[in-house]
Amino acid sequence: MRDGIIAGVLIFLLSAAAVVIVYQSAVSSKLKDALGQLRPQAEYLASLVDLRAHAWLTTRQQTNSQPHTALTQRLQNMRQFYPGLGKLFTGRYKNGKIEIILDTLDPARGRSEPHYVARPLGIDLAPDSPEIKAIQERQTFLSDQPAFQGEGRFLGVMVPLPNPDFSVRDFLYIDSSYETVAAGLVTARKARDISLLVAGIFAVIAGMTVFSWRSQSHFRQMLAVTRLREGEELFRSTYEMSPVAMCLTSTDGRILRANKAFCDFLGYSESELGKLQPSDYTQAEDLKKDQPLVEKLRDHQASQYQTERRYLRQDGQIVWGLASVAIVRDSDANISHYMTQVVEITKRKLAEETLSLSQERLALAADAGKVGMWDCNLITGRAVWNDVMHAIFQTDAKNFAPTLQAQEAFVHEDDRGAVAAEFQHCQQAATPYEQEYRIVRRDGEVRHVKASAIIFKDESGKPIRAVGTHIDITAETEESKELIRAKEAALAADKAKSEFLAVMSHEIRTPLNGVLGFVSMLKNTRLDSEQLSYIETMESSGQGLLTLVNDILDLSKIESREIHVESSTFELRPFVRKIHQQLEAQAYNKELHYDFLVDYSVPKSIHSDPIRLGQILTNLLGNAVKFTEYGRVELSIGARPMGLHQKNWEWSFTVRDTGPGIPPEALPKLFQLFYQVDSSATRRHGGTGLGLAISQRLAKLLGGEIRVESRPDEGSEFTLVLLAPRGEQVTALANLAPPKPVESSPQKVLGKRILVVEDNPVNRKLCALQLKRLGCEAEFAETGFQAVEKVRIGQFDAVLMDMQLPDLDGCGATREIRREEKTGERLSIIALTANAMPEDRKKCLDAGMDDFLSKPLQYETLATTLSKWV
Ligand code: ADP
Question: Ligand 1 within 6 A of 717 CB?
Answer without folding.
Answer: no
